[in-house]
Specification:
Blueprint: H1 7-24, H2 34-42, H3 53-64, H4 74-93, H5 99-109, H6 119-130
Helix pairs in contact: 1-2, 3-4, 4-5
Length: 135
């Protein structure tokens, strides 16, 4: 699967979350810094896990088998750890569910706790969106 397949969806969802956070501030919006609104959007829980099933499966299995991950990005590592935790919890609740079915269900149906990218990437997404570049 092409590496950037999920990028468009991730960026659209983030812009939508940012706009919703801005709107929720109402009349106080002009008095809240842009970075504060970005942080609220990043941690809004309105994003998903923007990765392929294969990538998620490979890295969640590594965590469950107590093997080190190959990626060094802290936010990606925490995303895989969150996924592994959710898979473990789901399989505990439904012992007959297979690993593949469980992971597929979580990727397809559940929201992530946050957007797993940082402030700089968020600013860049918003900048490109405001300039009318494809998001």
């Amino acid at each position: 699967m092409k590496k950037d397949y999920f990028k468009k969806f991730k960026e659209q969802d983030f812009v939508r979350a940012y706009e919703e956070e801005l709107k929720s501030l109402g009349a106080s919006a002009p008095y809240v810094s842009r970075d504060d609104v970005i942080l609220r959007a990043l941690h809004s829980g309105k994003g998903r896990y923007y990765i392929s099933f294969e990538e998620a499966s490979r890295n969640v299995r590594r965590i469950m088998n107590r093997l080190p991950l190959t990626c060094r990005n802290e936010l990606k590592v925490s995303m895989y750890q969150e996924l592994a935790q959710r898979v473990a919890e789901y399989m505990k609740e439904k012992p007959l569910a297979s690993f593949k079915d469980t992971l597929f269900t979580i990727l397809a149906e559940e929201k992530a706790s946050r957007f797993f990218f940082g402030m700089q990437t968020a600013r860049l997404i918003l900048y490109r969106n405001q300039r009318g570049e494809t998001v």
